Amino acid sequence: MVTKFTASYAAQNKLGKVSFLLFGSLRKLIVLSVVGFVVFLGISVYLSKFLNIQYSLFVLTGIFLSLSLLSPVPNGILNGFQLYTTLTVISFISALIKLGLGVLFVVMGYGVFGAVIGLTLAQLIGLCLPFLFLLALFSVKKEAVSKMDLFHY
Question: Which has the closest alpha carbon to 86: 121, 138, 131, 120?
């Protein structure tokens, strides 16, 4: 959905609507992500005792999942702008960072906790990378997008 509307607004040179779509979508998904994280933490208390797994691993997994929920928005905007090479490079760099940090923390002796913290940090970095290419949208005056158009799609 983000990709389709970004492409449409970009073709009409309505960057204000793309900016509104980016930040409006992120705002809503952040709320959903925080609610999901809290619910996940509540369930994790019981799961960690039942499965005999450290609660901190569940916390890191919850953070990872919350960040994963947010990343399709900036990536969809890049896709809508048809910046496929940029998106591919970001995906590749993100995968390398995940592998590198995971292996690094495991080798440093953190074990499974190190692998999960490496994945979580890499997910955060992967979420931030697309914004380097979307800086122009920060300075554009936002134009409201019709919610009915979004819902009809």
Answer: 131
| Length of the chain, in residues | 153
> Cβ neighbours of residue 152 under 8 Å, at least 6 residues apart?
none
pTM: 0.86
**Sign of torsion over alpha carbons 59, 61, 63, 66:** negative
Give the pLDDT of residue 153.
Answer: 56
Q: Is the dihedral of CA 130, 1, 35, 148 positive or negative?
A: positive
Q: For 64-106, what is each residue's pLDDT tens digit?
A: 999 999 999 999 999 999 999 999 999 999 999 999 999 999 9
Cα separation, 62 vs 43, in Å, equals 11
Signed CA dihedral, 145, 147, 148, 151: sign only: positive
Count other Cβ atoms within 10 Å, centred on residue 79: 19
